[in-house]
Design a protein that fits this description.
heterodimer, A: 278 residues, mainly alpha, 12 helices, globular, B: alpha+beta
Chain lengths: 278, 477
């Protein structure tokens, strides 16, 4: 038996659709990359570095630092790729079925590009917002708190539950040439937009937590279950997980904040003393 | 009276002289209509479980000052009907049983028989059966609870065609189909929970398409729109017949009747209110034996009608996912005020990727629009020459619900699959050469006007996102 046919049957037997193998492969790659983007320290947008809360709170330098911003953005793209791409399964299947046989792989590629590019834009948006907030009297941490609480409230709202039904709409795809590529990428972007209405707050909450990467796998699984099993209280569990991931961090960051505040006070006092002595 | 009572659903056309089934149905409806919108056993609440009207502006039964149930309750119990999915039959069976129980309780409270059961309207039996049952036709000075001001003709003739009441669905060889452009199955495509339309391009199953959708569309009025349909008392007799057709199909295909797939049997559960106001949660696997569905019921006749040729038995319950795209339109097809069309190139290189003697399917993808709920005839011809051929019919039942992006339905539109294998040779679709296929649509006439609250500015507009042709391997010799 041809290896491709054998693999296809194995996938089907395990409950996975072989038509979605390319998507699974890309998703797996992002999961593999996820630990690398953490780089040995908590990779959140708010908290980057060994003394994160202070760096965010006491100066926009932390986000003006190009390296850190790039790391954070890279982490965002990889995390959304790992967690959100599995939700793209029905759309990838739609693109597969609605494309000529010889174009199926290419169509799925454009779908993923459109999807991830839109999610990356949300990452840019978050960074810009955080930058503005930290530049404005160091409000970054409070923005983080507000974002997480907002995400939890949105997560369990009936409005969000209604929007869940819109996450899997299909779009007509032109069959040939560049126009087909554009339609697939556009469909990916529209899927990301629809998805963002239900998942973006939770994804922001995850990215704001230094232990978000630990919660990523259960969160991704919950999000997938939430779409396929309406009788399952996944929405509440996602909210709880978001809250836990963030709550774990709060006392730690508060201690860090106190330490940084004390150190800053000491520096200012000593600088004042030095100036006074000159 | 010993033993367990099983209610018997009877053909409305065969009810004996003096039978009071419809009288008590009317009595119960009048009582249920008195219940407020917030009562889960009320007439309007039960109808909203299928699909909720646009409240309050376009709800013809809106009462000044009335309240809706709380948002979370509506989210859980309203807008639940399953269409374009393999849950179509099982969800509606539970829904009908819950309704039957509610009506039966009122009938008994009002002094009627304890074994009241919902009749069915078998419009496929013969020409006379196509007429709407007489008890539903006349207003009777406003005293007839079975009458509604929309979707009625005095003589009961709704102008059903042979296609509308066709039982070709019984020849389906698979319980379920797939969303792959090919076979859609008897019940509908494999899916998750699907309210009306739009989700990843799911099409109607065969029994949902004909006769279910066609009858809805041909009656029109409230019946033409899934968000209003269950407000028409004839809705329940129509669905009782669709429920019966499932039993006919099961009886005809004993080797493949009951799906064994856990995704269908037990993965998804549904919630409905029953006669005592409590919540009943059920799964599809509990819908297989009608005698154990809630109070239990059976039909007086589930024999396979004459003229229906049954498919092969011992086939898998889900159709193989073997169709491939062979051609698609580059542009959307517009249908304005009942007529329109477009073209697509089929064959050539794509044909050579397929097989000889293929099954051929025409797909109408992402159909959106407004002001339209009728049946359309579909015609095709080879643009290089050849006769125009009528290749089937599609219903726009649910078009608006499936098109509204702000509704819970998602806005992805309806999807239709027509098997056109019998016409493939005439349309030059079985040769390796390219074929330019012209496809056109023409609205069928019907006896009734669209209700005022469903009339839209700008008339009737339908947009088919893409018309495509799929090939699948032919049946084994």
């Amino acid at each position: 038996m041809h290896p491709a046919i054998r693999s296809s049957r194995l996938l089907r037997r395990s409950g996975l659709d072989p038509d979605l193998a390319p998507l699974l492969l890309v998703t797996g790659t992002f999961w593999t990359m996820l630990p690398w983007t953490i780089g040995g320290h908590p990779p959140s947008l708010c908290l980057t570095g060994s003394d994160p809360i202070g760096r965010v709170m006491f100066g926009s330098a932390v986000l003006l630092d190009g390296g850190i911003a790039t790391d954070a953005l890279m982490h965002w793209v990889v995390m959304t790729g790992a967690m959100m791409l599995p939700l793209l399964g029905p759309a990838a299947k739609h693109v597969h079925v609605r494309s000529f046989k010889r174009r199926r792989l290419r169509s799925q590629a454009f779908l993923v590009i459109g999807f991830l590019a839109t999610w990356a834009a949300f990452g840019f948006g978050a960074l810009a917002l955080l930058l503005a907030a930290t530049a404005w009297s160091g409000a970054g941490p409070w923005l983080c708190v507000a974002a997480v609480l907002g995400a939890v409230i949105w997560q369990v709202s009936t409005q969000r539950a209604r929007m869940m039904r819109r996450c899997r709409t299909a779009a007509p795809l032109r069959p040939h040439g560049v126009t087909a590529d554009i339609d697939c990428a556009g469909y990916g972007a529209s899927q990301a937009l629809a998805c963002s209405r239900t998942c973006l707050p939770a994804m922001y909450a995850m990215s704001l937590s230094p232990v978000g990467h630990l919660a990523a796998l259960p969160m991704a699984w919950l999000m997938l279950r939430e779409r396929s099993r309406r009788d399952w209280p996944a929405a509440w569990m996602i909210a709880l997980l978001s809250l836990l991931a963030f709550a774990w961090w709060l006392p730690v960051s508060w201690v860090a904040f106190q330490g940084h505040y004390a150190a800053t006070e000491e520096t200012l006092t000593s600088e004042g003393g030095s100036k006074g002595g000159e | 009276m010993g033993g367990v009572m099983v209610r018997v659903r009877r053909n409305v056309a065969s009810l004996p002289e003096g039978d009071e089934t419809l009288h008590w149905y009317g009595v119960a409806i009048a009582k249920l209509r008195e219940r407020p919108l917030t009562d889960p056993t009320g007439w309007r609440y039960m109808a909203a479980v299928h699909g909720a009207p646009s409240w309050p502006d376009n709800d013809p039964y809106y009462v000044d000052g009335e309240q809706q149930p709380p948002d979370d309750e509506r989210l859980k119990f309203w807008d639940q009907c399953q269409h374009q999915t393999w849950f179509f039959l099982s969800w509606h069976r539970g829904y009908l049983a819950a309704f039957e129980g509610i009506v039966a309780k009122v009938v008994e409270e009002e002094g009627g028989p304890a074994d009241w059961a919902l009749p069915y309207w078998d419009y496929s039996a013969d020409e006379a059966s196509r007429l709407m049952p007489e008890a539903f036709r006349a207003e009777d000075g406003g005293a007839n609870p079975l009458w509604v001001p929309w979707g009625r003709a005095d003589d009961g003739d709704m102008a059903f065609s042979d296609e509308d009441v066709s039982l070709d669905c019984l020849e389906a060889k698979f319980f379920a189909g797939t969303n792959s452009g090919g076979e859609v199955g008897f019940a509908g495509p494999v899916s998750e929970f699907v309210h009306f339309g739009g989700l990843v391009g799911l099409p109607n199953g065969r029994v949902e398409d004909l006769p279910h959708n066609a009858v809805h569309s041909q009656i029109g009025g409230l019946m033409g729109n899934p968000n209003y349909a269950a407000l028409d008392p004839i809705f329940w007799l129509h669905h009782s017949n669709i429920d019966r057709l499932w039993e006919v199909w099961r009886a005809a295909h004993p080797d493949l009747a009951d799906p064994k797939d856990e995704r269908w049997r037990s993965d998804i559960s549904f919630d409905l209110h029953v006669a005592d106001g409590s919540v009943w949660t059920f799964k599809s696997e509990a819908m297989l034996d009608t005698k154990t569905v809630l109070h239990g019921y059976e039909f007086d006749d589930v024999a396979v009608p004459a003229g229906v040729s049954l498919g092969i038995s011992e086939m898998p319950e889900i159709a193989p996912e073997d169709a491939t795209l062979a051609g698609a339109s580059e542009q959307a097809v517009e249908i304005v005020d009942g007529a329109g069309g477009g073209s697509l190139k089929v064959g050539g290189e794509e044909f050579s990727l397929s097989v000889t003697s293929p099954r051929v399917y025409l797909n109408l993808e992402n159909i959106v629009g407004s002001g339209e709920d009728a049946n359309f005839r579909v015609y095709a011809r080879d643009a290089a020459g050849g006769d125009q051929v009528m290749i089937g019919q599609v219903s726009m039942f649910g078009l608006e619900a499936a098109s509204d992006a702000d509704s819970p339905h998602g806005g992805g539109g309806l999807n239709k699959v027509l098997e056109i294998t019998p016409f493939a040779d005439r349309l030059n679709l079985t040769t390796p050469e390219d074929t330019e296929l012209e496809v056109s649509f023409e609205r069928r006439a019907r006896k009734t006007e669209r209700p005022g609250f469903l009339t839209r500015d700008g008339g009737s507009r339908v947009r088919i996102g893409r018309v495509s042709v799929y090939y699948a391997p032919g049946d084994p010799e």
